[in-house]
């Protein structure tokens, strides 16, 4: 059975390049656009089955009487499986057909959402006891299990997209395309809030899982029609050869006799740059989740804002974040010619300055701008360090594993952000929390300075080899 599953997901064979230059150019234009919008829409739909729980939590609390701590178990289960799954699914995605891998993950995520709701239909708290445990406790653990399963299937989405973007877009343009695609995170979150919010308000919390699941399954079948694997599987040359750009590895993948394990070991396990990026990603996520999860509480307690005003100020963070993400990719492509480290440094210095100004600022309206800039300066490095930089610092053959590896470190940062920020607030007040985020930014800056000099050295080496 396992061999049948592996054969099903196996990459399609590489075909011999066919057609003249004009035909290849036309085919590339068609498929690159098709792959891009498919990845964007596909990942947006993933968020419909991930962020919907935020709108359902009040209903779960009212209907079953769960405490905030008990409801927090659901989010923890998803973060845990997502962090581990991102790396493991990254390894699997590298040798899998994107056309099958991505839609299958989306369908399984939808099924996990449906099972989550069915648990509440078949088990009614207070009526039955299972194995000596209250039925409410059993139901809570079932909720956690299926939401954790959802996290695992959700984690398979990004590695598959990373593989597609890496193979279909070259280094000189990848920053722009990757940053544009990254906006699917914010679009997906926005649509999930709108759709699930309407469903909960009119039909109850269960529909916030049923309807997104149906939409996800329909989208998955559409993706099977739209997606394809690498250009070489369609009889097209590799993208660097097509765009006449220098490459650090052979395009003729079928002539590379190294095993996947050898490539993985050389380009990830023994790759200093990947380890530096992964460590830096921890501190990026400390800042990101610190701002996203704690900003409302900080504004309420430290600046005495109402909850409504604090929420309005926080809304500037993802809005500016979209702009910051796109600009990070464009600037790195157009101004720094594919170098990512200078942009990361600029953004991280910007984060540090904005955090300092936010702490000392006494003009309420200026908080909107500062929080928005924190979002812009945070989402840029988040997009590049753990994603774009990771794939460009390894091998295309392990692109998914590279992003999965750094992504796992990122979710370690998410845990440290939650526990660390809470500890600093309890011990040192909000000055301690802001200081914790600023220290994280400074550590990340130091790492990025090392990466900056490594990148310059590699660029000079590439120039010498071309000459």
Any overview of this molecule?
By secondary structure, the protein is mainly alpha-helical. It has two domains: 17-245, Up-down Bundle (Growth Hormone, Chain: A); 266-466, Growth Hormone, Chain: A, CATH 1.20.1250.20. It has helices spanning 2-9, 21-48, 53-64, 68-94, 98-122, 135-154, 157-168, 171-203, 207-226, 239-243, 260-269, 272-302, 307-334, 341-360, 364-392, 399-466; strands at 129-130, 133-134. A two-stranded antiparallel sheet has the order 1-2. Helix 4 packs across helix 16 and helix 12 (272-302) packs antiparallel against helix 13. The longest helix has 68 residues, at 399-466. It is globular.
Structural class: mainly alpha
Major sheet attributes: 2 strands, antiparallel
How much helix, percentage-wise, in residues? over 70%
**How many DSSP helices?**
16
- How do the helices and strands follow one another from N- to C-terminus? HHHHHEEHHHHHHHHHHH
How many distinct folded domains? 2
CATH topology of the largest domain: Growth Hormone, Chain: A
Helix and strand arrangement:
Blueprint (H helix, E strand, L loop, with lengths): L1 H8 L11 H28 L4 H12 L3 H27 L3 H25 L6 E2 L2 E2 H20 L2 H12 L2 H33 L3 H20 L12 H5 L16 H10 L2 H31 L4 H28 L6 H20 L3 H29 L6 H68 L1
Antiparallel strand pairs: 1-2
Helix pairs in contact: 2-7, 2-8, 2-9, 3-8, 4-6, 4-7, 4-16, 5-6, 5-7, 5-9, 7-16, 8-9, 8-13, 8-15, 12-13, 12-15, 12-16, 13-15, 14-15, 14-16, 15-16
